[in-house]
Amino acid sequence: MVAYTPSALKAELNERGWRMTPQRETMLKTFQNLPEGTHLSAEDLCELLDKEGEPISLSTIYRNLKLMARMGILRELELAEGQKRYEINQPAPHHHHHLICVRCNKTIEFKNDSVLKVGAKTADRSGYHLLDCQLLIHAICPTCQRSIVPL
After folding, report:
1. pLDDT in the model for residue 1
2. DSSP letters spanning 60-83
3. Between vectors from CA 126 to CA 2 and to CA 137, what angle results, nearest 5°?
4. What is the per-residue pLDDT across 3-60, written as a single tens digit (0 to 9) for each?
5. Is 105 left (phi over 0), alpha (psi -120 to 50) or beta?
6. Is 93 helix (H, G, I), strand (E, B) or coil?
7. Domain spans of the chain, in order of start
8. Hey, how many other C-beta atoms are within 10 angstroms of the C-beta on 141?
9. Where are the beta strands (DSSP E) in the chain?
10. 54 within 8 A of 26, measured Cβ to Cβ
11. d(CA 92, CA 26)
């Protein structure tokens, strides 16, 4: 896993026969500048870019989010609310996982190097190049547990 710069993204896109568009560069920079722990949906990103005076159509955002996730630049997360969200894919030591309450959608990020090590070792043993390794744990938080009415 590598941290992407606009020039690294451009080189990889060119290698695959694609171009570095202004929209892709804007999206990359936006994700790189988000506060840690921020997960954006395509709609969230579209709204944020519009507010910042960098409007990009929602269809362009969807296409580029998928592309950047396939390339390993972004992490695609399916959190409890059933909507895909994205965050920048950080290399170790910033690599993290998610604990998600399925009732209130509260999400806690946590680090566990052993998960990443097992993923990297498994990929390497099979001849794969690791792009991402993530663990999503779906659970019920203490607050929601207290609100469950017993039968």
Report:
1. 44
2. HHHHHHHHHHHTTSEEEEE-TTS-
3. 65
4. 667 787 788 888 888 888 999 999 999 998 998 878 899 999 999 999 999 999 999 9
5. left
6. coil
7. 6-147
8. 18
9. 74-78, 84-88, 97-101, 107-110, 136-139
10. yes
11. 24
